[in-house]
Each structure stands twice: as structure tokens, then as C-alpha cells.
Amino acid sequence: MGTGLEGLRVIVTAGASGIGRRIAERFAEAGARVAVCDIDAEALGALRAARPDIAATACDVADSAAVTAWVGDAAATLGGIDCVVNNAGIAGPTAPIAEIGDEALQSCIAICLLSQFYVTRAAIGHLRKSAEPSIVNISSVAGKAGFPLRTPYAAAKWGVVGLTKSLAAELGPERIRVNAVLPGIVAGERQRRVLEAKAQRLGRSFAEVEAAAFGYTSIPDYVTADDVAEQVLFLAGPGARRITGQAIAVDGDTKMLI
After folding, report:
1. 153 labelled catalytic
2. Which one is catalytic: 118, 144, 153, 198?
3. One of 118, 157, 165, 255 is an active-site residue; which one?
4. Residue 36 above 70 pLDDT?
5. Tally of CB atoms within 10 A around 125
6. Where are the domains of the chain?
7. Does the 9-250 domain belong in CATH 1.10.150.320?
């Protein structure tokens, strides 16, 4: 039995490591044709060595001209674009707002939010030619809850949800579906750094902060990259043809962030 994703032409930002890589790998395993970009040269090299079937290109998603060039190259490589996965993001600073400088603020907003605008803008002409067009934007549980000491990140991720819902309404008449996935506390080095920074700011141990974070989650466990990837693949597939404008949490029912 097929996956319904065979031959789908997919682009993924920040696809050389972490959640992005797993999304790209799962699409490829399902029979899709995949192109990714990333700013991490070492991660790109590792992906190319392990998965030569995935086209991997260096690109700074905060640079609109670079994004436009990459999307054009990816479309040429794949023969078009059916699905855009806007995955790129950074943690941003952990600090009270009075201590957050312009550079850290602007970098977080540019990579977490503006990049999704740039990629979608560059890809929309290709999506309009697709028989099964979709966009999946990666937001965060921070896109539905307040996140003290993480205001740039939370603001960007709330912005992703607003972008998603607005695009769904705008592009729906053209049958282009747009949804967001909101991962919860994701296992990995990036999440560890976030909790370590929060622990340092609060003067508490890592174990205390980790336990407190899971104290507001119905399923007190880390979300995995596979958990997120499976939701993304579903939203790009035939089973989601009437699903658009949704912000779908994969977070174990996280009620609050600390």
C-alpha cells in the first residue's frame, strides 16, 4: 500500500539536522523527492554523505535574496514544488526584555518568522502549478502560550500561527492548504540549552526546571523529532485534503510554559 506521498516534491528549511532532517528523511522514505537548505556546513556535509537522495544546499534563510535563489534552484532540481516545510528557527535569547539587545531580537524574529514569509513568497508561483499544494509551518507550543524570559521567540512563534491562518484564508480558493505544527518540549541539545539558560536565570538546578516544565504537561515526556515529522507528513498527504488554517500542537497537552 502506497503512502500517498510518492513523487511529492518537497522543500524543507533548516533540513540538515534535528527536526528538519528527520522531516526530510521521512518524506524521502515515503517516496517523495526532497530538497533542503541549511546554514550549517558541517550538518549539510553529513546529510549529503548519509542521504545523497536529498538535495542539500547552503542558505541563510534570514536573507530574502538568498532564499529566493534557493527556492528557484530547488524547484529546478525537483521539477517543481508541491510542499513547503518552513522549519527554520533558533531559540533566541533567554533574558528579561530590558536586557535583550536589538541584534538578538532581530535575529530571532528574522529566522523564526520572516524566513517563513520569504520562503512562501518565493515558492507560491510553483505551488500554484501543483496538483497537491501545501505549506506546513513549524511554530511551537510557545505560539499558543506566554513564555517568560523568552519574549522574542514566543512573539515569533505566535506570528507563525497568524501567518498560517492568514495564508490559509488567502490561498484556500486556490486549494493551497496551509497549516502549522506546534511542537512541545522537544528532545535534543537545543532544548537542553534552553532549559540550562532558564535554570541559570532563575538560580535553580537543571533538574528542577525540567521537572517544573513537565509539571504543566499531561504527558510528561519529551516530544521526539519523529513525532513532529509524522504530523508534517500527514498534513502534506491525501488524508489532509480538507485540513487548512490549523495550528496543531504535538506537545503532550502542555498547558503553560515557565
Report:
1. yes
2. 153
3. 157
4. yes
5. 12
6. 9-250
7. no
